Each structure stands twice: as C-alpha cells, then as structure tokens.
Predict the structure.
Amino acid sequence: MKKIFVISVLVLSISFFVQGSFINDAEAKKYSDHSTAGKVGLVAASTVTTAVYMPFKAAYALLGGVASGLTYAVSVTSESESAYRIAHKAFTGDWYIHPDILTSHKYLHFVGPENKKD
C-alpha cells in the first residue's frame, strides 16, 4: 500500500511539472466579441458570481463605514482625511463582476483605488 502511494505521488508530481512546462497563454475573447449565446452564458455566470461576491463586498463596506466613523469620532475631526480614505477605499471598487472580468480582460478591484487628492 505504501509503495502504491509513493508511486502515485511521484507520477502526479512529475505530471504536474511536465504540464507546467508546456503552459502557454491563451487569448480569450472579450465580452463584446462573443456570439449571442456566449454573451448570455457570460452574463449568467456574471450574475451567479455577483450573487456570491456582493454580500462580502457589502460587509466590507459596512465595516469600512463603521471604522471610518469611529476614526472620525475618536480623532475629534483632526484626522478627517484618514476617515475619508478609509471610507473611500471601502465604498468604491467593483460592486459586481463584469463579464470581462470572467474573460480576464479586466481586473476585479475589491478595494477602491488610492485617492489622489492634491
């Protein structure tokens, strides 16, 4: 039994590394380049993944809003810029998964961008 396990691990390890050495980047079509059936499939997949993703984003935004409010209240408005940055990063970002994210033509931004105010 031990011999079979060792051989299986060895074969799987070798096949993993051999497969990894032949990986090429595949060019996926953009959402706009798909046929009607392809677009319907991507929208359906986007809807399902958004239904799973959105509660996590909403919880993150809620916690970010609470943290921002506490930062503002505790610092007695002297650190309002910090509170604004926390709220900005929590409330911005992607709230849904676009079909182009599923085709790797866009990136998913869970956290909002850095605010570049001058």
